[in-house]
Amino acid sequence: MTDFHHISVADTAAMLAQQQVVIADIRDEQSFASGHIAGAIHLSNGSLSQFIQQVEFEKPIIVVCYHGNSSQGAAQYLAQQGFAQVYSMDGGFSEWQKMQPFEQSSDA
Known about the structure:
alpha/beta, globular, 5 helices, GlpE_sulfurtransferase, Oxidized Rhodanese, domain 1, five-stranded parallel beta sheet
């Protein structure tokens, strides 16, 4: 598969509750520290290589950005790298924080 899928905040929360997914947050470091989905991995150009080496290709990945736009390009890229199930979360973190709990880094 070389395409990603869209996923809602509610469906993301459901998959996360079942611990069946990796959340890849592509926002800048300061935004990630200010608030992110619990357990999310901060994915940047600097950490991309390590991410690809460490995450199982069969594990579902949900890419999160600010509003659900930038995550689509990143999700497409991960799908092209061979990840089997890649999603872009519609509405991004701005939509998540309206409906779901999130955590902040201790140094934020």
